[in-house]
Amino acid sequence: MSRAVVLATPRESRPVVPGTNPAKVSFQAMSFSYPGRQALSGVTLEIPEKRVTAIIGPSGCGKSTLIKSINRIAEVGTDVRVEGRVELEGLDIYAPGTDLVDLRRRVGMLFQKPNPFPKTIFENVAFGPRIHGASRGADLETIVEKSLRQAALWEEVQDRLHSPALELSGGQQQRLCLARVLAVDPEVILMDEPCSALDPISTARIEELIEELRQKYTVVIVTHNMQQAARVSDRTAFLLNGDLIEVGETEKIFTNPSNRKTEDYITGRFG
Amino acid sequence: MATETVLEEIEPARRPRCPRRSFLGERLIESFLRLNGFVAIAAILLIFLFLFKEGVQAFRTIPPGRFVESTELDFDNMPQTVRMWQPVSTNPKYSLVPLILGSFLVALPATLIATLLGVGTGIYLAEVAGKRTRELVKPAIELLAGVPSVVIGFFCLATLATLVQNAFHTTFRLNAFVGALGVCFVIVPVIATMTDDALRAVPGHLREGALALGANRWETVIRVVVPAGASGLIASGLLGMGRALGETMIVLMATGNAAQVTLNPFISVRTMTATIAAELGAVPQGGEQYRALFLVGSVLFTFTFGVNLLAEMAVSRMRRRLAL
Amino acid sequence: MKRRSAEIIALSALRGIALGVLLATLLMLGSIARGGASSISWEFLTAAPIEGMTRGGIFPAIFGTLCITLLMIVLALPLGVCAAIYMVEYAGNSGLSRVIRASVNNLAGVPSIVFGLFGVGFFVLFVGRSLDRVRGGGLLFGQPAMLWAAATLAVLVLPVIIVNTAEALNAVPRSHREAAFALGATRWQTVRRVVLPQARSGILTGSILSISRGAGETAPILFTGCAYFLPRLPLVHLSIPFTGLSIPMVNPLDQFMELSYHIFIMATQSTDAALTRPIQYGTTLVLVGLTFLLNISAILLRVRYRRALEAR
Fold first, then answer.
1. Fewest CB atoms within 10 A around its CB: which of A36, A153, B58, C264?
2. Is B198 inside a domain boundary?
């Protein structure tokens, strides 16, 4: 059996302390079906707190569905069937009567294609705090500034907070969307292939941000770019056709995967 | 060796040949189709032309000032200024003021009420109704749009006017308000359908973004979707007003047809459209009143054209805003 | 919690508005049905009016409506379909296409009474009188007639046909056209053999909708050919030579009775409104039923067409 080829060097600075962080989100034998097709089958997975977990796999394997089921965006506009449990800090988020509004405040999301509202930059970031009733006036400005700084966008937009968000470049728009998410003070940040529509420089900036974010937030990132997964994540999960094939420390997955299919995917034999 | 013989015996593939004359045929067909395309352009131009040609002729015998007001002698033989439309009389009066006021006295309340109801229904269709409900309600709205205006006018005349009179104790059974309610029936489907189209044109990822930030359904609709589609909503209101100004049969049957200068919606009025409809049949062709009626038509057309132009500008503004 | 209650109130209000609109429609239609149901009978639909419209039937009005909508669609359909084909298939995105589109949009916004003015001023007086002048010998074309009323209605429904046809043509995927071109077909061959067959449903929908529209419009034909009490049908008997027989043909230069016009005149100008009221309701019910039938078939057709499209 050939050894897996190392495709990327994970950064040495990352502390590899497996298993010490409690699970922020956990899937327990979870199956997810859209009308007419099953997207996930019996997935059991723990997402540790304040770490970056990457979800990789070929197109159509269910990675988007997986993270969209954490903030229950997957079921918007369609009838879905969910079996098993998905827990956020021990509480079943699919229990009847779950407050979706609160769930989605605690679990934020960055989409594949930047989707700022057709409003001003300020209004975009202030949207979340406004509807959650937190603040107005000076408080709002503080929150907006803080969020834009966290997203490394403040320097570039501080003079034009009230100009349209759609005038920003793609990379800036994605950072704006990140600021928008941070403004509601979430606990988990989901990222659905956040850099696939961006150029390499913007991608690098977002990856730098992810490195900072993991100190405060639990990050789950879906990516089809394995090098990116190797660069930014602590743990990696490999999905194939709705099944969780393997999950483990990123370094181990990319240098010495246990499952043959994982190895084939990583070495580019398919996908 | 054997292979070579076989190859020689196979016939060269027959290539279909294009006869020369089909090229000419193509050009003829294209010219014929282009001619038909021009007919559409010609139609609107001809309407414009004939309307204004006859209308402008009215100024030949009636000075422009007379279209606002004219003087007549009252009982004491003292001259006084009146604003009346009374073409058939010893002193024909052609003031457009009561007619224009009448048209707007019907169109404005109708548009206001209909925008409220129509936008509400449109938002319901686009954002609230489930798939199956929508498949029932949208065709129902389209069926309402298909009801002939003469039927609605008849309903106003026969039933609605009495209901309104009982509810509001109006002196005149047929008045501008009844007409406005009738016109509502016509323009609510227009506004609802346009609102529905405008909101559905707002991309889904904007809704997802809002929901993912913890907004509930109503907040997503009112804070993200509606503002994004706002120009389309404005356009639908404007289009509705254009329809309301141009509506003829309902106002003819329900407003009482008394040309007066008033802002009171509960008395009988006469709109520009009703004037033309009521008088064109009885007027000698080429006469002064005939041309005056064409002038009324020109004024009406200018109003509706202007409103429709504004609506079109609003629609293109919305398209630009969302296409970014 | 305040947010949740705001959401509940707002969504309920929206549901209420939609429900209110539907209810108002139902009430209106219900009142017409209630008033007119008693008048509907076989005799009502097949006999002519008698005793100054207080009794009898409305057959001539039904016949007149059928004639005029048929004539209208014969005039408007080829024109509109060809214009749409040119706009979509030949002119593409050029300036001319935009001008045609703008003209169609403007036509759609013209008030119906202005069409009436146009019908009188252009068709009856200009075209009609000119034809008479060329022909010599008396007033034949230059007076209100079914032909001119149908022409006026045709101009009115032209946008409906063009828009529906253009929509149907645009729904045909570009790849089909490209495949045809790649096989060496000319543009007209592609249109005729590949695009048009697929657009048939849309064109049919447009036709049905315009017939419904034409049957319901009154203002454009008020002065271009309608009559209130016309005891005979607009027919002319053409004799077939050598046989001594004659066949009745619709005479497009005649005046005619029409359903919507009939309702209007009866409701506003009949000498004894109370006596004719049941007939008014009955006629209205017939017209509503007719337009409903047409509109429902158009909707069903569109639904079936969309389902077939998605199934592809």
1. A36
2. yes
Structural fold of domain A23-115+185-266: Rossmann fold (3.40.50)
Residues in chain B: 324
CATH of the domain at B285: 1.10.3720.10
- Which residues 197-216 on chain B approach chain A with CB closer than 8 angstroms? 203-216
Q: Which residues of B touch C104 (CB under 8 A)?
A: 40
Task: Give the number of other Cβ atoms within 10 Å of residue A158's Cβ.
Answer: 12
- In contact, A105 and A98? CB cutoff 8 Å: no
Tokens of residue A1, six digits? 């059996």
How far apart (Å, rounded) are the C-alpha atoms in residues C281 and A186? Answer: 65
Q: Do residue B137 and residue C103 have CB atoms under 8 angstroms apart?
A: no
Regarding pTM above 0.95, the answer is: no
Which secondary structure element, helix H or strand E, spans residue B300, and what is its range? helix B288-323
Contact A233, A248 (CB under 8 A): no
Which CATH number fits the domain that encloses residue C152? Answer: 1.10.3720.10
Q: Which residue of C has its CA nearest to A130?
A: C3
pLDDT of residue B78: 76
Q: Quick check: is B23 in a domain?
A: no
DSSP string for residues in B100-148: HHHHHHHHHHHHHHHHHHHHHHHHIIIIIS-HHHHHHHHHHHHHHHTS-
The CA distance from A15 to C133, in Å, is: 101
Which two structure tokens, joined as six digits, stand for A148?
């834009």
SS3 A192: strand
ipTM of the complex: 0.87
Gap between the Cα atoms of C35 and C22, Å rounded: 20
Residue B21 lies in a domain: no
Residues of B whose CB is below 8 A from A181: 212-213
3-state secondary structure A70-136: CCCCCCCCCCCEEEEEEEECCEECCCCCCCHHHHHHHEEEECCCCCCCCCEHHHHHHHHHHHCCCCC
Q: B214 is in which domain, residue-wise?
A: 96-323
The lowest-confidence range among A5-9, B297-301, C63-67, C86-90 is A5-9
User: Is C47 buried (19+), middle (13-18) or exposed (0-12) by CB count in 10 A?
Assistant: middle
CA distance C248 to C236: 6
Give the domain extent around C280: 58-311
Residue of B nearest to C104 (CA): B40
Count the domains in chain C: 1
Residues 6 or more apart in contact with residue C213 via CB below 8 angstroms: B146, C156, C157, C160
Least confident among A41-50, A213-222, C87-96: C87-96
Chains within contact range of chain B (3+ C-beta pairs < 8 Å): A, C
Q: C161 in a domain, yes or no? A: yes
Positive or negative, the CA dihedral C103, C108, C111, C117 is positive
Banded pLDDT at B4 (limits 50, 70, 90): very low
For chain C, give the number of residues. 312
List phi, psi (to 5°) of A120. Answer: -75, 165
Tell which B residues from 216 to 235 touch A, by Cβ distance under 8 Å: 216, 219, 223-224, 227-228
Q: Is residue C201 part of a domain?
A: yes
Q: Which residues contact B50 (CB under 8 A, 6 or more apart)?
A: C117, C118, C121, C122, C126
The pair of three-digit structure tokens given for residue A220, joined into one six-digit string: 């789950």
Structure tokens at C290: 């007719």
Q: Answer yes or no: is B47 within a domain.
A: no
**pLDDT, tens digit (0-9, with 9 covering 90-100), for C119-152:** 988 888 888 888 888 887 777 777 888 899 999 9
Element (H, E) at A229: helix A226-232
Read off the tokens for B62. 């009636």
Packing angle between helix C59-85 and helix C273-311, nearest 10 degrees? 30
